[in-house]
Amino acid sequence: MNPLTEQTRASMAEIIHRYPHKRSAIMPILHLAQSVQDEITPEGIAMVAEVLDLTTAEVNAVATFYTMYKRSPVGKHHIGICTNTLCALLGGDAVYDAVSERLGAGHNQTDVDGTFWLERIECQAACTHAPVMTVDWEFMDCQTPASAVEVIDRLARGEMVVSTRGPAIRDFQATEHTLAFPDDGLAGEGGEADAIMLAGLTVANQRGMSAPPATAQGA
Amino acid sequence: MTPLTPVITAHWDVPDYFTLEGYKRHDGYRALPKALAMDPDSIIAQVKDTGLRGRGGAGFPTGLKWSFVPQNDGKPHYLVVNADESEPGACKDVPIMMANPHALLEGVIISSYAIRAHHTFIYIRGEVPQAIRRVASAVREAEQAGLIGDNIQGSGYNLRVTVHSGAGAYICGEETALLDSLEGRRGQPRLKPPFPATHGLYADPTVVNNVETIANIPWIVNNGVEWFRQFGTEKSPGFKVFAVSGHVNRPGIYEAPLGITMRELLDYAGGVRGGDGTVKFWIPGGSSVPMLTADHLDTPLTYEAMAEAGTMLGTGTPMVFNSTISVVKAVTRWLEFYKHESCGKCTPCREGTYWITGVLDRFEHGAGTDPDMKLLEDLCANITGRSFCALGDAAATPYPAAMKYFRDEFEAATHTPVDETYPSAASYLFTELAPR
Amino acid sequence: MTLAPHQTSVQPVDTVTVSVDGIEVRVPKGMLIIRVAELMGIEIPRFCDHPLLDPVAACRMCLIEIDGQGQPQPACAQTVTDGMVIKTQRTSELAKEAQEGVMEFLLLNHPLDCPVCDKGGECPLQNQAMTVGRPEARFDEKRRTFPKPINVSAQILLDRERCVSCARCTRFADQIAGDPMLELLERGAQQQVGIGPDAPFDSYYSGNTIQICPVGALTSSLYRFRSRPFDLVSTPTACEHCASGCALRTDVRRGVITRRLAWDDPEVNEDWNCDKGRFAFLYTADGRVETPLVREDGRLRVASWPEALDTAAHGLAAARGRAGVLTGGRLTREDAYAYAKFARLALGTNDIDFRNRVSGDEEAQFLASMVAGRRLGPTYSDLDHAPLVLLAGLETEDESPIIFLRLRKAVRSHGLRVQAISAVRTRSLDKLQASWWACQPGNEAWALRQIIDGPQGADALAGLRQPGAVILIGERLAGVPGALSAAAALADATGAKLGWVPRRAGERGALDAGALPGLLPGGRQVTDEGARAQVAAVWGVRSDVLPSRIGRSSSQVIAAIRSDAARADADSEPAVQALLVAGLDVEDSPEAGAFRQALDEVPFLVAVSTHHNEVTERADVVFPSAVVAEKAGGFTDWEGRVRSFGPAIRESSSVADGRILAMVADVMEVPFGTGDVASLRAELDSLTPSTVTRAAAPQVASSAAPTPESGYALLATWRLLLDRGRLQEGEPHLAATARPTEAVMSRATANSLGVANAATVTLSTARGSVTLPLAIGDVADGAVWAPLNSEGCALLGIGATYGSVVRVTGGAR
Predict the structure, then answer these.
(1) How large is the ipTM?
(2) Claim: this prediction has a pTM higher than 0.90
């Protein structure tokens, strides 16, 4: 595991500057600690407490409340499969079962190498793209059991996998770093809205529908 | 037939629309100079006059909310954008942030100016890094273009915008839990009163608005009250970014006036997919609002008509389920979600969701009992109106609604596992995406 | 509840009329419904509600119906408005159903281990389940379990499965104590109380969480599984550990104290106390003097009471006029008064002093002028309402922990400003958001004078001139020449109330009782003929019986004994031939070595003591006396408030000091009275408070602290709340929660001493040294802080005390 360094501390200080009260910085700072250590460690909690002038109990209270903070190493990739009602019933359960079998891991467990962390995740705000999988929290929309397993296989082989609405998959720690420093240069990846997001616009264009233009007195 | 009316979504097919340049090319940031030339109070008045209602689920009138902020009180004011979209079924704010982050930002600047806020936080759930990137990148572009920062466009108005990543907690969509979370605490809801308008972030006056709500603002300022009010109804004016998901042939984002019906949306979405081709049940706006059936397909999707039908418009993101779906299984899964997301603060929600999921699990395995049905009814009644915040009420919603229309399925689940009655595989609908 | 006597003006309050269960009442606007119901005698069940904690409305047990509101509302969080119609569970089916529903939820995962749970029998959950709960459980699923129990500190254990998530403990830790080291962790059904990794809940106030826990989730190592509440005999008592004056309840099982609790006294400690007061009571059991002892052939042997009384009476009578009395600061006011009276009547001397600590003539004059025999005040209530409190020479959390709590409450509730003249920016100052004026030890007098006439003092001076401002000073200012004079002058110049906060519980009582060389009871001066006459009248003697010359202080008495051997003729000062010493520890004296020699050399030594100690082992006669728990009596807290109590251990046959002195006096044929606590108290109460002429305030010029040479530093030190104190013996769990023993100095001081990189430092004097871990902190430059009397750091033993110059070297010597 990587140690937290003075560089980490300096980055934390940078995050603090975004907020009028430094305690507000705790969530991105915990993401940063996780980006270095692949989990929230006691060492991470101690450093966060120190930079924010909190007790370790206060930091622990926050770190254990939010499910994205993990208390054991995630490994290289975090695999999330939505098994909330809609995704699950449209096939998410089958996707989960297939991936679980492929990895030999259950919910909130890693595979035997500790490379992949599998998690049943809740609604990912992508129901239109069900069943939804995430790899290191990047969208892998509209999965089938076979496509999901193939994603795992390719990742396991070190091949490039590209998010269906985002950048090429990096790793869990890289995403955690993005959550601490979001302007990571990858915003343009994934391009414009996909066909599903454009479904209504497409129909509107086909049928010649549009919103009425501004009226004179309104403008 | 109510037509589709793309406004916020009108240019999503433009390859670089999510960039400052792309947005500006399509009339972006035209509302901002107008707004900055206006008196802040008149912007509040204008938003009030439009009747715009919050798009986060509760439908509270936005202008009214803004008007509760005490002015000239010498305290810092804050705008907090609730981008914690986590409600099962809700999937319209994340697309807006990904496809149109600058509309959100333009709305942020205008709204902040109106309520005299000089620092705005956009609290985005942590599980959607691509949405976070797009918004953060848009903020940087806007800063570099002088649209955010000090003395915006020479107006003398200063604004900072901070993009904040959440870390996995549905409860943070509740506005006071969001504020506690943003203050660096556990995201548990606060006692009200006092309300955020007077004692919000850091105990200062604060407005918390949903992404889509704020994204409406540039068009309101640009096109005016009358233009806005030609969409929708008297009580539900405006257009809405509907997200239709589930068993439909073309799931996706459909922007249309409020008052469109589910039948019309279904038609645009290519009709029901799978099963016997009929709607078994649908939910107008997130799992927290009661389900409806095919009998309600012609009910206008407005706040008032949905209330009359015994449900709520909620987030306006209908989930459609075909005849293959087990209601028992659907309800069980939603309750597991609420149990997972209960913050633990209040007894009814914390313990009630724990209990209900245990009982529902037995039904799913065909081991429910008749008394269990009454028990579940009691438990839901003991949560509704007793819990600290709306999450508890939401958790107590699916079961009674399901019992209203599908009691027979629970009865069947006293002897037969739901997987036998409704084999899971029959519901699966896989769509192969083109490889990238 | 008693109202403080000084609260004479009643503020007009806006009232509203509400109806509760059909009864109309007028109550102050903004009152919480649950409090209104309490006033009316209507009990609404509750768990998370606590009147001293911010409402949280989490448990939902107190749901009631309000007309016009569709859903039941939490009574603990809703305030009343005019015309509100409230229906509790007694008259509302909605409220009743809601409460029953919540109770059913609360009991789901609660174990049925009441028979082995400490709380069983006094458990709000158990009691309310009996009244509100369903007779049969409907919950058929698997209960939530946790491995049990876990230590949240050495003293406090947590059984998580019993917890109902009311958050009283965590809110107490955060809001009241300012120690957010106990927090809710996880969420939902897994939500649980917990701590940080390897960071125990070592708050000085941690025990309160056990007391306010409405279930048996929090228990103490000391009491766990020791007793059942219904086997205990409870007595209201007062705490003997410091001058805060806490009301306590002492629970005794078959003659043995099993636990102590904070007792609700809204005027003093409210619902709280500190962990020392709660857990440090085992000293009462071990090491006791059990019978009278007399010395024969150089050895102490057991003696009968008559023999011991005889021996003592003869020896003391022989030394009449040449005997000294040293009482220490731990006596009850009645016992201290008995010594004061005994000294004057039986020994014919004013050579009596309760101060077994750094003291001096300036302090004696200050106390005579500003404190002794005066009426109540300043009070806790004054702190509640003060705009500004200035602290000097006082570390409230360590030295008077309830003052700290009250200051913190005022800071939180109305933004009280606290300013502190201190060598160290302590944790308590941070928790009070205090402004810290760094002051080298020994420079307090100068600092106080700066406020009066220094260029930087204007703001503080204006602050202290605000009505209600308070100055609180600690007893260690006695060791800083001019500091008490300056404090008195500052109070005089500003009109601020001045509070003297001694550390020990018996000091203020002993002062008022006349256990000082210059003072008779009630602050009367021994040199004042009229005052002597008043006292003589109460004592039933001629006034010329009372000695009129100012007596000698403890250090003067000690010095006199030691010089007696060398002295051929006793001219003006009579030689001290006998000493009567009450329950004090020699090692607490700043001149312990000289004290020991004096005890060795004095021709006749009588010890009245609860425990064997360095005095009893040197004594000619030893009388066993009762500990506080075994007798009736009272302490006078720092406010001047009398805290009377009865015996908690009623089975005890131990005798109080006052009664022992009466028996000795009886043998000496001195008219003393029976010495029983009631008559001593009655006499004392007739003598104090008084309105007699006071001594003038001291006017000692301030002087600056010495400038230490290179390699030396000024010592800042005081006793930590939890340390080697004798009365804390026998409780390892409490001791394990003490703050670390370490030396603290500023980075600059460490650099200039060349120890910046040292792990440990050694502080040395001519008499010895201590070696401690070094910590860098906010300490006035040139100073080093270390605890006065902690394990491995008994500074008095090396002759070092507050303001001493010590040599500082890096590493172990």
Answers:
(1) 0.97
(2) yes
